[in-house]
Write a sequence for this structure.
């Protein structure tokens, strides 16, 4: 019984450490809204919820930025050339989510 309780406590503590937060930043055309999943202080996933940017330009930039931000665990990464406003808005949205 004691092992079962300890196991449940461990599962609950892991579950409560994971969080999903939303944030918004201003892109080239309009706001960019993202969902940022974290476990403790670690960024584990980033998803775009709303974006009005030109897809053929924004999507590759956001894919690259997402990989770099997760790898570096920081929004302090270089913007993507040709998608500067989108990059800045995307990073701003992530920073906004992490503040909450």
């Amino acid at each position: 019984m004691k092992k079962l309780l300890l196991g449940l406590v461990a599962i609950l503590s892991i579950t409560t450490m994971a969080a999903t937060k939303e944030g918004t930043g201003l892109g080239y055309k309009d706001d960019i809204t993202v969902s940022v999943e974290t476990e403790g202080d670690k960024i584990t996933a980033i998803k775009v919820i709303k974006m009005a940017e030109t897809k053929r330009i924004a999507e590759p930039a956001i894919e690259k930025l997402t990989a770099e931000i997760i790898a570096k665990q920081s929004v302090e990464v270089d913007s993507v050339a040709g998608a500067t406003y989108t990059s800045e808005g995307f990073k701003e949205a992530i920073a906004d989510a992490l503040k909450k």
